[in-house]
């Protein structure tokens, strides 16, 4: 049977309902009884039932939809920082396929061209490095490896006394050790001793201490070496600087990456510095 609702204002309907549900007086409600807590949780929907005067005695129920549970519990998941971006003091365990500036630091310490990718070449050189210092050759940056890396990086060194590399590699390691020992020696024109060096005097002295003799001048040293490409150059090889006409005017010791050890000019002592020119050639004894 169809139900026809009379036009009754909502305020009047609510008023009528309030009159019906008036709180009883007297001893109907014990004073000591605490009102019971609603069984439904706070997140449950508040339901309001309003009795409206509708033909047939029907009641209209107004209800608010329940809040989404997932919306209340959803939180942003913290992203994990890649190991290659962790700080050097944290000594992260870097391994294959890691990327970032901390990987570059390790590669520089190993005298590799730093590309920031922990690939097969980095693992291979690190294993040789670890073995040369009596460390377990894992190819990963263990805490013991980090301690040795930071120590040798400050001194411009590479392989240690337990290296089982070829004689040529061992010689270049000696060259780098001798080159770093002379850090801070003053420049002296024509100097060939630790009291003072010019560029070729420095390289000649270092090579002699490592076990091989070089001619006196930078041009003569260039003529006495096997010329190699920059791609195949290894730390410990010689770096020659050329003028516009192709003549050699300066020489230093390649330290890996874009660095070299050299004695450059008056007022500047022996130091490790960047290779500032593209007009360079590399030589190997």
From TrEMBL:
Pfam family for this entry, one: NLPC_P60
One annotated GO biological process: proteolysis
Signal peptide (UniProt feature, chain positions): none
Biased composition (Polar residues): 1-25
GO terms for MF: cysteine-type peptidase activity
Region annotated Disordered, chain positions: 1-42
NlpC/P60 domain: residues covered: 169-285
Keyword Protease listed: yes
Keywords: Hydrolase, Protease, Thiol protease
Highest taxon, organism lineage: Bacteria
Protease in keyword set: yes
Family: Belongs to the peptidase C40 family.
PANTHER family: MUREIN DD-ENDOPEPTIDASE MEPH-RELATED
UniProt name for this protein: Putative peptidoglycan binding protein
Species, as recorded: Kribbella steppae
């Amino acid at each position: 049977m169809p139900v026809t609702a009379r036009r009754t204002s909502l305020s009047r309907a609510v008023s009528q309902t309030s009159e019906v549900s008036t709180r009883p007086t007297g001893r109907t409600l014990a004073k000591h009884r605490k009102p019971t807590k609603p069984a439904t949780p706070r997140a449950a929907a508040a339901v309001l039932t309003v009795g409206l005067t509708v033909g047939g005695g029907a009641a209209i129920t107004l209800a608010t939809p329940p809040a989404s549970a997932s919306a209340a519990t959803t939180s942003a998941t913290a992203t994990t920082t890649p190991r290659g971006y962790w700080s050097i003091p944290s000594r992260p365990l870097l391994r294959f396929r890691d990327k970032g500036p901390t990987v570059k630091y390790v590669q520089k310490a190993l005298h590799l061209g730093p590309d920031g990718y922990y690939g097969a070449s980095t693992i291979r050189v690190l294993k040789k490095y670890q073995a040369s210092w009596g460390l377990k050759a894992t190819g990963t940056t263990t805490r013991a490896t980090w301690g040795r890396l930071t120590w040798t990086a400050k001194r411009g060194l590479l392989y240690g006394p337990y290296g089982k590399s070829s004689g040529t590699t061992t010689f270049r390691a000696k060259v780098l050790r001798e080159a770093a020992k002379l850090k801070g020696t003053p420049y002296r024109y024509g100097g060939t001793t630790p009291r003072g060096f010019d560029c070729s005097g420095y390289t000649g002295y270092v090579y002699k201490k490592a076990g091989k003799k070089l001619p006196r001048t930078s041009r003569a040293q260039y003529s006495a070496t096997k010329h190699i490409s920059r791609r195949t150059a290894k730390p410990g090889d010689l770096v020659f600087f050329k003028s516009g006409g192709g003549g050699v005017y300066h020489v230093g010791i390649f330290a890996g990456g874009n660095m070299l050890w050299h004695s450059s000019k008056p007022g500047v002592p022996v130091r490790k510095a960047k290779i500032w020119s593209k007009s360079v050639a590399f030589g190997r004894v």
